[in-house]
Design goal:
The protein has nine helices and nine strands. It binds SN-glycerol-3-phosphate and calcium ion. InterPro entries: GP_PDE_dom, PLC-like_Pdiesterase_TIM-brl.
Length: 237
């Protein structure tokens, strides 16, 4: 049975990677949420998609150059939701403890590598006792290997490059699962993964025909901006 993961929270309606979007996602009954993680100048784990705050907040600059205090002063740049702030991983995990959600933590360490981030995140998750409810993922395949050495939690290798062979990727990284852009997945590759017992989750599935097609193909996880829609499709099955 496919499981629904809310991509950046319920980001179709609410500002991505905010506590509001995560809380609204939980209300849809989805299985999990997906979030993106960077690291601030003073070593805090910051939940935001881009390397900079420019697109999603009223601030400017790279996360790596800003302190948590500076980051917390910025507001989310979206009409109706200007009271929302950039969350930290602590904000999310503290709330997640009150839910049954699975948390897919994507380390955004492929463009900028944050030294010591893997260790810090694994330790943080352990502090909250959430190791068995976390799936790590990253496009940085060296980091996948490193995470596999640091934790018993599930670790997924992310990719979006056409021609990537998921079986070889799992072999070279030790990943437990594959998270791939749906545009580069084929039904044949999907079958190969299934035969080898490798869970495949695809992003970003927002349209009913796509969601239906991949659920029918036995997809493990639907990573979607619209968890309500995906849950409704699953219920009809
Ligand atoms: O984790 C799947 C997906 O979130 C990866 O792409 O750019 O939305 O973080 P992106
Ligand atoms: Ca992501």
């Amino acid at each position: 049975m496919s499981k629904v993961f809310a991509h950046r929270g319920s980001s179709i309606k609410y500002p991505e990677n905010t506590m509001l979007a995560f809380k609204k996602a939980e209300k849809t009954g989805c299985y999990g949420i997906e979030l993106d993680l960077h690291m601030s100048r003073d070593g805090y784990q910051i939940v935001i998609h881009d390397e900079t705050v420019n697109r999603t907040t009223n601030g400017r600059g790279y996360i790596k150059d800003l302190t948590l205090r500076e980051l917390k002063k910025f507001s989310i740049k979206r009409k109706w939701y200007r009271n929302e702030k950039i969350p930290t991983l602590d904000d999310v995990l503290e709330w997640a403890m009150t839910t049954n959600l699975i948390i897919n933590i994507e380390l955004k360490n492929d463009k900028i590598y944050y030294e010591g981030q893997e260790e810090a995140v694994v330790q943080k998750v352990a502090e909250y006792g959430l190791g068995d409810r976390v799936i790590y993922s990253t496009f940085n395949h060296k980091s996948v290997k490193k995470l596999k050495q640091l934790t018993d939690s599930e670790v997924a290798a992310l990719y979006s490059k056409k021609g990537t062979n998921p079986l070889l990727l799992v072999k070279s990284t030790g990943a437990d699962a594959i998270h791939a852009n749906h545009r580069v997945m084929t039904e044949s590759l999907m079958k190969d993964c299934q035969q080898h017992g490798i869970p495949v989750r695809l992003y970003t599935l927002n349209k009913p025909p796509l969601i239906k097609k991949w659920i029918d193909a036995g997809l493990a996880g639907v990573i979607t901006d619209d968890p309500e829609l995906a849950e409704n499709i699953l219920k009809e099955k």
